[in-house]
Amino acid sequence: MYVKVAIPRPIDAFFDYEYDETALGEIQAGQLVSVPFGRVKLNAVVVEVSSEVPVLPEGVKIKSVFEKISDEFSITPDIEKLCRFGSEYYQYPIGEAYFAAMPPKPEKILSTRGPGTRSVGEASSRQLNDEQSQVLSVLIDRTREKPDSVFLLEGVTGSGKTEVYIEFAKKILEQGRGVLILVPEIALTSQLKDRFERALGEPIALWHSALADGLRQTQWRKVKNGEIRIVVGARSAIFAPFRDLGLIVVDEEHDQTYKQEDRFRYQARDLALYRAKLLAIPVVLGSATPSLESLQRVSEGKISHLSLKNRYSTKPLPEIELISLVDEPLVIQSEIKTPIAEKTVREMQAAIDRGEQVMVFLNRRGFSQFILCRDCGWVKKCSQCSISMTHYQRKNELRCHVCGLKSQVPSECEECRSYELIGMGSGTESLEDELRLLLNNAKILRLDRDQITSQKRLEETLDQFRNLEANVLLGTQMLVKGHDFPRVTCVVVMMADMLLKWPDFRAAERAYQTLVQVSGRAGRADLPGRVLIQGYDLEHPVIELVSGNADSETAAEKKDRFVESELELRKLLFYPPFSRLVRYRFEHPDAAELKRLTENLAEGLTQVLRADSGDSTEGRVMGPSEALLFRANNRYRYDLYFKAPSAEALFRVSRWMKKMAAARELDLIVDVDPYSS
After folding, report:
1. Disulfide: which of 291, 373, 484, 548 matches 413 by Cβ 3.0-4.6 Å?
2. Average pLDDT over residues 160-168
3. What is the pLDDT of residue 58?
């Protein structure tokens, strides 16, 4: 017998092997086998079994399968189709796509460290309010009529979207089917798992990359054999091998972290829609700030739009105040690097004095953004990347946020030998020290990637704040996502206008989503909330929109106008959701040669498109141009963007581009629907 297999290597091809059915037993598509590949032994996924001898190139002798790996790790049919679709759409080698869906080290059963599946109590219920009950009724009725319905549940922060997910999940579980809950951050998985376990009375599998290999493998097997029917996880959970999946929920569907930024660059939300369509099951996309892609699908009639307009607690949304760093008096002290208004400090202190909690958002890490020479203007840059190195005072080091290179802080300027070196700009590390100086009785915790180095550290930090062991939580984007702390009444956004300075067509949308989400952390229980948004340029439409009274008719109309104007602009410029955007990133050690080769490729692509369409390709090909980060890890980078009118055009152009880049020995990264520059 013969098998065609996919191997975990960056190769767009399958490979043929023979096997002895008498010795190895029956082999089926989806199973794992061990095969020789070159001089190494690899695990491979079987994609086809046949008794016909494969046609091989002249002089090539077929090799034999070494062994069959446990049936427990076979890939399910719907996951196999999902990987094939993901491989084609995101232009990623098929073998590596399959293995992105596999558990770690499947060649052997790993032991599970720590506690196994714990017993849970009886399912509990929480009374839904009228608004939630109406939404749940629509979900149930429309799914009964059309099982593969897609819903966008738009609810203000604190409106109780999770309670709706739970009650809808109960209906699916009563049918004997499984439930997948996707969340954007690993930080949210544990608290949501506990909440679902209490409400549903069933064990739940956590699913994310930070889990130990043994636990990941054990939960993979338990989900596959139906022992666990509910999974709460980050984006990789979209590949969980359910026996009978009945519902997918994508919470905070707008969040950009659903897009994988390296290797297999898939968008988990969009793969969720594809998997649900395959299985004819419902999908619920939830958000307080839906993506423009989802809102456009609503307008096209592809998604049903449901709304929760009020907070569950019936308390009003937090009062939002804009604080101009131009007009308001600032704290003037030699130790203070971060621009902070005196009024902001007074408001934070008042909340602490009342025994309440404060959250502070600053989207910059480190102590100083860079080290500058006062005499000649020299800035210390990374030797491998075209970016300045961030200063970390506590470790007395400079660090590159791209390649991770570290070095000691220089004692003198490398250009003029001056000793007049100063740190410019601020980050969460310096702001933590500054808040200790400015606030009395402040107990501060920091939530950023420098401070949170493990899942355990993350959970400990969140538990400390939840248990009132600290009254100030300072952080970056990790702070924004879905946290629920009843005693938080004051939220401060530092340098809000910096969110709008990023060179990205999604900048306004992202800034709006971030500001609304972080503002929603305030006043979620019985205590009223207050949000202070600081900045130098506060007249931007996005900031004015967020600062309005969010439960008034005027605010709703302003939001609708913002969405409409953003969509009109994207349609005019042929950006998503009105096109399929793909970025071709070329890398080469020689900058001049890279420029020449990419310009040659861009000209060739334009000619190919003109020959295909018979008219101008204006508005479809952009570049090539230097990447925003031109040099990384001692390699130069150029970007070429293509706005494809259809998926077919995207596939055709990408195949051509990969072929041409390979012929020129150019390293190429294809990023479909890119979310970062």
Report:
1. 373
2. 95
3. 86
Residue with tokens 């749940």, as numbered in its chain: 136
Domain at 2-100, CATH from 3.30.360.10, 3.40.1440.60, 2.160.10.10, 3.40.50.620: 3.40.1440.60
Mean pLDDT of the chain: 91
- Both tokens of 46, joined, read 């079987």
- Range in 367-381, 598-612, 616-630 the model is least confident about: 616-630
Q: Specify burial of residue 202 (Cβ count, 10 A radius: 0-12, 13-18, 19+).
A: middle
Residue with tokens 């971030």: 514
Same fold, 319-365+427-547 and 580-672: no
DSSP 8-state code for residue 476: S
User: CA dist 253 to 170, 263, 273, 295, 418, Å?
Assistant: 21, 22, 11, 11, 51
| DSSP result, 400-448 | -TTT--EEEPPSS-TTT--S-EEEES--HHHHHHHHHHHSTT--EEEES
DSSP 291-350: -HHHHHHHHTTSSEEEEE-S-TT-PPPPEEEEEETTTSPBP--TT--S--BHHHHHHHHH
Residue 473 — very low, low, confident or very high, per pLDDT cuts 50/70/90?
Answer: very high
| Domain ranges, ordered by start, for the chain | 2-100, 130-308, 319-365+427-547, 368-425, 580-672
Confidence class for position 616, pLDDT limits 50, 70, 90 = very low
The two three-digit tokens of residue 452, written as one number: 């949170």
Reported as a pLDDT band with limits 50, 70 and 90, residue 113 is low
Residue type, 64: S
Please tell me the distance from the alpha carbon of residue 672 to that of residue 152, in angstroms, as a whole number: 23
Quickly tell me which residue has 């897009």 as its tokens. Answer: 259
Class of the CATH-defined domain 130-308: alpha beta
- pLDDT tens for residues 500-535? 888 889 999 999 999 999 988 898 888 899 999 999
CB of 623 within 8 A of CB of 638? yes
Mean pLDDT score, 104-125: 70
CATH class of the 580-672 domain in this structure: alpha beta
Taking the C-alpha atoms of residue 632 and residue 629, their distance in angstroms, rounded to an integer, is: 7
On whether the CB atoms of residues 574 and 291 are closer than 8 A, the answer is no
Cα–Cα dist 589/565, whole Å: 42
Tens digits of per-residue pLDDT, 363-405? 999 999 999 999 999 999 999 999 999 999 989 999 999 999 9
pLDDT at 120: 65
Query: Is-contact 614 608, C-beta < 8 A?
Result: no
Q: Count CB-CB contacts under 10 A for residue 257.
A: 17
200, 373, 409, 466 from 140: Cα distances, Å: 17, 65, 61, 35
Q: Is the pTM of this model over 0.85?
A: yes
pLDDT score for 115 = 46
pLDDT of residue 190: 81
Pick the closest to residue 234 from 201, 272, 197, 262 (CA basis).
272
Residue 280 CB neighbours (<10 A): 10
List the one residue out of 59, 50, 45, 41 whose CA is nearest residue 19. 50
